Amino acid sequence: MGDEIKRSDFIREIIAEHNRTGRFGGRVQTRFPPEPNGYLHLGHPRAICINFGIADEYGGICNLRMDDTNPTKEDVEYVEAIAEDIRWLGFHWGDHILYASDYFDALYDYAERLIELGKAYVDDLSPEEVREYRGTLTEPGRNSPYRDRSVEENLDLFRRMRAGEFDEGARTLRAKIDMASPNIVMRDPIIYRIMKVPHHRTGDKWCIYPMYDFAHCLSDSLEGVTHSLCSLEFENNRELYDWFLDQLDVHHPQQIEFAKLEFNYTVLSKRRLRRLVAEGYVTGWDDPRMPTLAGLRRRGYTPESIRNLIEMVGISKANSQVDIAMLEHAVRDDLNQRSPRVMGVLDPLKVVITNYPEGQTEELEAVNNPQDASAGTRRVPFSRELYIEREDFMEEPPKKYYRLSPGAEVRLRYAYLVTCTDVVKDPTTGEILEVHCTYDPATRGGDAPDGRKVRGTLHWVSAPHAIEAEARLYDRLFNVEDPYQGEDFVDNLNPSSLEVRPCYVEPSLAGVGAGYRCQFERLGYFCVDPDSTPERLVFNRTITLRDSWAKIQGR
To answer: Out of 2.40.240.10, 3.40.190.10, 1.10.1040.10, 1.10.3300.10, which CATH number does the structure's domain 351-357+377-454 have?
Structure first.
């Protein structure tokens, strides 16, 4: 498949060298191993695209394997959400999902084998004592007083751990490596700990569970993975990854690390995201303000836009932060190509066309997508009474105001040229209730046959035909570039991240279902929320037409 591979980066160069030298027999097999303790977020698509994408390019396979080694934090809900997110991104993993728990019996046998080799021991130190004995970055650790137990005693204690004879925290199984190693990861890491908690797949079979570093490399080995592609945070753990596999003399994949993606104005910590959900700052993991894939999908982001962003930023070895505006640009660019245009009004002001016949309705032709001629056209009703955006009228406009004002002529999109003749106000408050206009019947379609020009074009909906709906206007969840600054990250939440208001949309949207995306002309891209009912549509604003934050931040 070499001729088909167009992209080049350090990972693909390593794989190409392996294939050239015959390592792994020319096979390429990867895996994506998420922990089912939360929803996937914007920090995950790079790893997903790399693992699934590279396997596909080389005609290999990529396993989806849940790292379910900590039953206190895991839930079937997260497993299902992770699978749905990966399918949504456009990737597939074969017939079934794999789990680290599939290998619990084999992992236990490997642990006993390490004990027999004199490479593991049962330790009685408490968690606090383990930390104390570990040392620091500048000081070596100290050997545990239980480090030199005999093989026979260690096997007996480990089997009794499995049988449930000891309390949680009373004992652990540790690898016997080097407490003076400059790499703290290698200072006799814990392999197994006692956790008397039922597992969502294995029930009460186990009361000891393997640690990630032990389970991960051996799961890779058992599955025949060739290239363990992971983020840079595991670079220090590669030495341990290799140590376990070398000691046990089993199939040995190559671990290769790449940089994670971080975004400004965004928190990508499952622990912090879990807090936002638990304490009610958001409505759930799929709240459209959340940086989770479920939240982005509900908001109307497309999988293509996320994959395009990953392609744009490429693969690197150095951690970096991406401006969230890059993702928003990718979303706009993709939605611009695929979204049908409709007209909707978020802050309605009634317009009465006084010289238009009462009771008359006509159908006007509107373009569905100027970027896609094959999208065709639709018919929108026009009548005497319309709604326009309140901000599109100003009674005393400043210079260079090209929208509607007394005596000004503007174009109604796809309709007519109209001129404001009168304003109706509430006599008590002075609030503008209606704007009266006249229209020029000769300008159907929005252009004047005499060639006169108008600079303002307004969107509108016919008042008698409009569908009343709900618009949820989402903005960034955090209002500072670095949400982690300060004493508590929740202090940096954007109080204006959600505004809910009634709106009116054209009748062509009647009956559209959840997930339907469109552009409200001049207002932004919107997506129908799952909260919608046949009686009331709910639209989430996916994103505005322009980067309003660039203006706010002075960019």
So the answer is: 2.40.240.10
